[in-house]
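sorry for the late reply, my laptop died twice this morning and i had to redo everyting from scratch. anyway the thing you sent over, i finally got around to it. pasting the sequence first so we're on the same page, its 138 residues, then the predicted structure underneath. double check i copied it right bc i was rushing
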Amino acid sequence: MTTQIVITILLIGLAAGILSGLVGVGGGIILVPALVLFLNYTQHQAQGTSLAVLTLPVVILASIKYYVDCKTAGTPIDLKVVGILALGFIGGGYIGSSLALKIDQDTLKKIFAVILFYTAFKMLGWDAIIVKWVKGIF
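ok and here's the structure:
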């Protein structure tokens, strides 16, 4: 691995870590596109790498920080909810990865892009604006 590749990987990891700690995203939204664009990974490779990163305790410090600070603020993180979500995540991750590996690269990239676009659209509130505009026409 060249020094340039190592630095690129470190910068991608740093960006994903910062965004993960800042707004709770990183793996899919940062790692997958960055691995595809900067390291020429296939979509399957990038998604698998992103999931593999999650298997390591990479977010433990951010999780502890949120847990302590939220508890101090009187809005604690419910560890029962975390556990139940984790159980669903384990099953869903297995099912999702099994499905993804059966889908060709181009289709998988498009599905990924649509999900990112839809999420951004909803979070920016553009869906409500469009619904209001369409209702105004009819």
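The CA atoms of residues 86 and 92 lie 10 Å apart.
thats about all i looked at so far, will dig more tmrw
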